[in-house]
Design goal:
420 residues; alpha+beta; 5 domains; four-stranded antiparallel β-sheet; three-stranded antiparallel β-sheet; 11 helices; 29% helix; 24% strand; DNA/RNA_pol_sf
Length: 420
């Protein structure tokens, strides 16, 4: 079963604050300082500073409180899961980060696989799940979730204070409205697909690393000799007998003017949503023996269930609580007027016959950002690695191979079995 969620378009506009005021607010609002406040006086070099990026703390702190962050403050910090809590998070390690993976870091099976298939053993940088991270930048809602679930912050290097402003609300509403129009009127399908593409891709551009931009030139050997001696030269590739590809740094300085806080916020909120789904929903309302994670992406997850429907697996004594809060997680086939009757039917495990008003609400909520929608239901999945899977049992099958265009995806289930 594949569940997916869309991210909300609510970001924050920066505001300049006095460093000393920020420091005092941090001490006043947090319940976590282990050392006397007198020992945390501002150093002389920072005492009268005014900075855009908030505050630098040179002394380590242990954060275990609930009221630490300002409203919407990204925080650069060191964070980890305590040893006795690692078993709680073993199904899905809670901290997502990029790390350099060496050949010695992977398990014996994958080492054997790489050697057998002559795969390069050079270290590679990958996105991983972890129990700790140093110098990670976290949005305050995600950091608050970590603190409320027992994670510990041992150092805060930077706090960036933001003033809440839903500056992209109109854009998010336009995307949702266009997609709803496509659901109700086939004539608007092309418009719905266009807005879906815009909504899914707009935040990615904000995280583009302009420092990696290069100029490419193709030339013969004589011109290559000239370009190699340039102070802007970066690398050369020999394409054939007398054709070379020269990569050079840009002559002009590229302004780093993209609003990276947008991408940071979207991906942090996506991580938060997936953690809430795993630990605040599934682990809270369903016996862990009744479900298994197969694969997860930025905003979707694939689960193997021991029952036909997810709601069939809800722990009996928690059914009322679950259905009271179900609308916060999923689109449900009921309007506000008939919600009490719907909850009673579900508690008693009776069938629910949605009225036309309830069906209309269900269609509306399917395009509401932040709710998980059922996108595929079948008999099984073959998950080889990130973004490479084959779901079967329902026609048509659902498959993905990262880096390959959909029109070239002609693989069958047997092809995936042969790789597993």
């Amino acid at each position: 079963m594949r569940m997916s969620s869309s991210d909300s378009w609510y970001f924050h506009a920066p505001v300049v604050q006095n460093l000393e005021q920020n420091f005092e607010n941090l001490l006043t609002n947090s319940t976590i300082m282990r050392e006397p406040l007198a020992e945390r006086a501002l150093s002389a070099e920072h005492k009268n500073s005014r900075v855009v990026a908030g505050m630098v703390m040179k002394h380590p702190v242990v954060v275990q409180g609930r009221k630490l962050m300002f409203n919407g403050t990204p925080t650069l910090c060191d964070i980890h899961v305590l040893l006795h809590l690692r078993a709680v998070f073993e199904e899905m390690t809670p901290i997502f980060k990029f790390a350099t993976i060496k050949f010695e870091d992977i398990g014996p099976f994958m080492q054997y696989y790489m050697e057998r298939n002559n795969i390069s053993k050079n270290p590679r940088r990958s996105l991983i799940g972890s129990y700790k991270s140093d110098g990670i930048l976290l949005a305050s809602p995600l950091l608050s979730w970590y603190l409320n679930h027992g994670l510990v912050v041992t150092d805060i290097q930077l706090i960036i204070e933001y003033e809440p402003a839903a500056c992209f609300r109109n854009f998010g509403d336009q995307v949702s409205t266009a997609r709803r129009q496509g659901d109700f009127n086939p004539d608007h399908a092309i418009l719905a697909k266009t807005f879906k593409l815009q909504g899914n891709s707009s935040h990615g551009k904000t995280l583009e690393n302009k420092k990696k931009h290069r100029d490419l030139k193709y030339c013969d050997e004589s011109k290559a000799d000239e370009l190699i001696n340039s102070p802007l030269f970066s690398s050369i590739s020999h394409l054939n007998e007398n054709v070379f590809e020269i990569e050079s740094f840009k002559k002009k300085k590229k302004p780093l003017d993209l609003p990276i806080q947008i991408g940071l916020w979207v991906y942090n909120m996506a991580k938060l949503k997936m953690l809430q789904f795993a630990y605040d929903l599934l682990k809270n309302y369903i016996n862990p023996a009744d479900y298994e994670y197969c694969e997860m992406d930025t905003d979707s997850t694939y689960l193997a269930l021991s029952g036909v429907e997810l709601e069939d697996l809800i722990i009996t004594e928690k059914r009322e609580e679950f259905f009271e809060n179900q609308h916060k997680w999923f689109p449900i086939p009921v309007c506000n007027e008939h919600r009490a009757a719907y909850i009673q039917c579900k508690i008693e495990r009776k069938p629910w016959n949605p009225r036309p008003c309830c069906q209309a609400r269900m269609k509306f909520d399917r395009r509401t950002p932040g709710l998980f929608k059922l996108e595929f239901k079948g008999e099984g999945i073959i998950s080889l690695c990130s973004k490479t899977y084959y779901c079967f049992g329902e026609a048509p099958a659902k498959l993905s191979c990262k880096g390959i265009s959909k029109r070239h995806l002609t693989f069958q289930k047997t092809d995936f079995y042969g790789c597993s």
